[in-house]
């Protein structure tokens, strides 16, 4: 399995997962100049070039390595857009937020305390869930991402989106209904 993790072609299957995580930290101010897809493509190309540096042996370690590359690129973009010097604390903060979002995503899939065999299934389904979230209409996708992956309260999501809490509740309901129907009732422990 370790050799298949080092296959550069395989890295591109993580594009939806990384794009979803990039939206967690990608500031609105520079989305117009550099989209989340652009920063993800740059990160994946760097990962392909550096695949020999990857020292992990599990799917989870590969996702963590890709998150680090993405976080570093977002921190560099943040620095470049603000002409600040490199701030390692900001880079760590970005990476920590992405890791928390990834853990929430995996927690949805595990639905509690997974067994070792469930850990493997979770790894396989993380990318599928990220793809499904990315396919949601913009409002639903943003509400689901902010509430469930970033951990924002309903009122905070409403404030960020410029909507009422009841409108956000509707977006969340419809988004989760779509995700449940796509993944089946077996994974409906998500919320």
TrEMBL record:
Residues 128-179 form the RNA polymerase sigma factor 70 region 4 type domain. InterPro entries: RNA_pol_sigma-70-like, RNA_pol_sigma-70_dom, RNA_pol_sigma-70_Plancto, RNA_pol_sigma70_r4_t2, RNA_pol_sigma_r2, RNA_pol_sigma_r3/r4-like, WH-like_DNA-bd_sf. It comes from the Bacteria. One of its GO terms (molecular function) is sigma factor activity. The keyword Transport does not apply. Gene3D superfamilies: 1.10.1740.10, Winged helix-like DNA-binding domain superfamily/Winged helix DNA-binding domain. GO terms for biological process: DNA-templated transcription initiation. PANTHER family: RNA POLYMERASE ECF-TYPE SIGMA FACTO, RNA POLYMERASE SIGMA FACTOR. This is RNA polymerase sigma factor CnrH. Keywords: Sigma factor, Transcription, Transcription regulation. Belongs to the sigma-70 factor family. ECF subfamily.
């Amino acid at each position: 399995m370790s050799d298949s993790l080092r296959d550069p072609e395989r890295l591109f299957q993580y594009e939806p997962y990384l794009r979803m995580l990039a939206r967690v930290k990608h500031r609105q101010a520079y989305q117009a100049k550099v989209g989340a897809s652009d920063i993800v493509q740059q990160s994946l190309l760097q990962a392909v070039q550096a695949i020999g540096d990857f020292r992990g042996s599990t799917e989870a370690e590969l996702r963590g390595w890709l998150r680090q590359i993405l976080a570093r690129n977002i921190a560099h973009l943040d620095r470049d857009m603000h002409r600040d010097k490199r701030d390692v604390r900001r880079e760590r903060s970005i990476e920590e937020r992405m890791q928390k979002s990834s853990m929430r995503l995996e927690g949805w899939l595990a639905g509690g305390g997974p067994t070792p065999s469930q850990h493997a299934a979770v790894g396989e389904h993380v990318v599928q869930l990220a793809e499904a979230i990315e396919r949601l209409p913009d409002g639903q996708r943003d509400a689901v991402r902010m509430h469930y992956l970033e951990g924002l309260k309903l009122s905070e999501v409403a404030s960020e989106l410029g909507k009422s809490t009841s409108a956000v509740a509707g977006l969340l309901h419809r988004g989760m209904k779509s995700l449940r129907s796509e993944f089946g009732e077996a994974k409906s422990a998500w919320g």
